[in-house]
Amino acid sequence: MGDPITELRLLADRPGSASRELDPPNPELRSVVAGDATDTRLLRPLTELDPTEFTQTVAQSSDTPETHSPAAPEPNVAPSSEDRLTALRLYAEARISSADNKHSRAISLLDRAVALDPESPEIWRALGDARRAERFENSAYEAYRRAAELGSNEPQTLLLAGLGAKTRDRPEAAAEWLLRAVRAEPGHADPLIAYAAAVALGESLIELGYLTAGLDALAEGVQIPRIARVPTEVGREAADVQRRLGLLRMLQGDTLLRLGRNAEAASAYQAARGLPGAEGVRDRLIYALRTSGNDAGAALVLIDEIRETPRVAPDAARLLAVLAGSIEPRSLVSDAVASLDDRGSASRRADLLALRASTLPK
Question: Using one digit for the tens of pLDDT, what is the confidence trace for 214-231?
Fold first, then answer.
């Protein structure tokens, strides 16, 4: 026989044997695998969804802008031609002020403009941009929300409206606007907008029970490139995605588990290992590997962990002993343990000797 760890890797790379049912190792995983197989939303792919599916369930926002909110115009009163022209002039003047970083003046001008022409998504979008530049996040969202509701097809506007809705527990509104953002034609010149929108869309769809569609969106979003290499107007939002990549990969794995796609879940958990925020992924990964019939892969996870740590964790030793009895040849796990470097403390050497003994064929 060659190197036992190489043999284990070859065995782990083969298609798994028949899947098996196991009790999840902790309560958190128990909640993950409790999917409802009768829910018709589960298997619908992203390509089948239409933003209008969510439009009818979107409630009117009750968010209160933190500042700079113009007086509401009289309902159902169309602005006059003169009002529209004045609003357009104010809008053009505000754009010049924003370009000169005079955002407070731009906000004042645009507040007057939307009071005159409240049905213009372009003016609301510009007001959102000016408020955002001044860090008035709540009132910026209010402006982006109005632009989105008025039919704006501008991807950055839809992204920021969707993100605002998502943080305010309005997943239906978020799903509608973010789906429009990822499908907007033409797309935005800033490529990070599409990635950030896809991630937020995936999270919102999964929250709403559209698991397959959510996975489709997440698969696109987690491919986001490093921010430093791409000039962007959504640096904060893109940086948030980068910080949460470990959690997002875990969400992919959890969702795949709920769909019974355990081997794919293992791949998602494997991608999460070592990423910030992915604490707890090891137990999920082992569970997904074992339930998809890949005991060799589960054993490798534990052996790799033991190789990198000064002591052998008791739970790892117990589980490796169980796995050793299900992997052929029966001596493979014990031989892999024997091949580990035992140089170091006396306690590590004692741990490895005890581990090898517990994994010997019975």
Answer: 999 999 999 998 776 777
